[in-house]
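Fold it.
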Amino acid sequence: MKVPELSIKYLIALIFIPMFFVYGCSVNNDKTLPEKELASGEWQFDGHLGDYIDNIATNRILDTTNWKSIYPETEDAFGLKEDDKNYPKSGQWRGEFWGKYMLSVIAAAKYYKSDELKERIAVAVQGLLSHMDENGYLGTYAHSDFVVGNNWNVWSRKYTLWGLLESWELLQNPEILDAAKKFTNQLISEVGPGKVDIIRTGNFYGMPSTSILYPIVKLYNATGEKKYLDYAKYIVKQWEQHPDGLPDILNNGLRKKPVHTWFPQTDSYKWAKGYEFTSCVEGLVELYKVTRTEDYLKAAKNIHEVLVKYERTPVGSVSFNDKFIGSAGLINTLSEICDVVYWNRLSFELYTLTGENKYVEEMERSLYNSLLCAFNKEGTWGLRRLRTSNIHIPATNHFLNHHQCCTDNLPRGLFQAAEFALMKRNDNEIYLALFNEGTGDILLKNKKVRFAIKGDFVSESKINTTISLDKPMSFELHIRVPSWSNKTSFKINNKVYSNQVTNNWMVIDREWNNGDCIEIMFDIQLRWETFKPELFDSTFHSIDYYNKEWAKMKFGIGSYELNNSIYKHVIALNNSDALPQQKALTFFYGPIALSRDIRVSGEDIFSPIAEPKNIDKISVKLIDAPADIWKVFEVVDEGNDQIIRFCDFSSAGNTWDKNSLFNTWCILK
């Protein structure tokens, strides 16, 4: 995809950037990876997924005209300092958007290898730092020390620090790193040992604030300064030192307790807030990489496991309306897109450390279902809440016309898929984890190896992967054997290749030549997952309560009139629209969840079906899809004399109105 040329305005601005903002200086950010840790190559997707990513990136990031409307709001918030205009009663979170948006822009710059975006980032960082006080404070609160009570001060600073650090990693400008240090030193002077305990700041028992753990560890990695490592360890100790506050993430994780049981209540600002919690766990994994404290990794792996069991839905979303409450026990769910993005971030961190297929399968499930449905067809705006039936809920802008957390986070979540598609370990092992069309490069022993995937694995049940090399090279190629394929077979240069599959990876160790072609063939059959109503946990509320919460969610009128006019039709549903809490099935083809949508399935998308009994009497074929739908499947169940048409979940409901009413769980007769 061609990135738009830099506008004259930005070219002129760049002339006046101090030289320390010129990227590519001599600072060395290379780090030696531990032997077993996977490292990302570069990848760009083609096909439907690639088009979806390109459309969002163009409209939210790459287009220079749109940039002039979208970016400046985030920086202006640091000059206006309106987040504590209700001081000392409450504070808001405009301050998160510079960092969140910039993290997506940085990911786009890497994905598209865009010098133009690097230049924009350089301008943006310079503009942001013009608002830094002499003492290092940089924020959207007029009162930097307003950290206790109902506010998001430290949380917002987390994203500013994170954005600065990733800007430095990309541009390699020492002045940016110096600014990040100055910024953090000022924070530590107000929040930390001998000051206000971080667990006492903000909402949700200090959980959003303590999620700053991840960028703090990144700062230590960048500087090697022990005080930042000490601060990271201080944050983890805070989790166990305040029994009346945030439940102890580390030790509860070691006990492998379901997360929703850690929290005593679901009152306002006291529930298990989804991605804020997951971000804390991601920080714990990052700290493990530095300290090699095994309990950190063990706790994170345990937490991931219980979230899969108790919170993750079939479409790869997690939580109920941004809360961990045992969501897997509810048939009517609505999930925050941010929760999905951070769920994948945690899965990614654990995959790079372990190489285990189960983490890839979680990322793949979320990618092809929840993330692939999270933006409108125009690529301009995202969902606030994702439902598995009826109508999704678009996001309401938060304070700034063009920003909302899910809308800003989603692009970064998509670009992360490119980070795990092609990876390496120990400079002699390459890991191919996804099968979507695309092209990528990875360096082994300072020599580039290129992979190109052709073919639609969903429609054709096979792909062809071509390897390009300057000269022959020996290495191990690890190809994931997905659980959704009953049998996966391989050919190399038209010759059948067989070997033992180990832990869902086919390892091919040989000398590779330029032009070598690997054909990967999948045996994909219809499969299904069963909803089990007995998983419901009534600790906090009844089924009726959750169904009412599910139904009443609607588009909230915000300050941006254009979005108000487009989405005001998304109103609350009737309580009777909720599916009954009883046994049901969600069907899959490959990693793709299937939904009934009135555009392909007819009007009666909620009617019960007969439970399939004999897989041998069930056939699936792909048929022509109407406009704006990716895939349509016709399922013929001869054993029950029923024919059902589905579309892919990511296309279901994508008009965000009753014209694409949909349902994913099939209630059984």
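Residues 4-33 have pLDDT under 50 and may be disordered.
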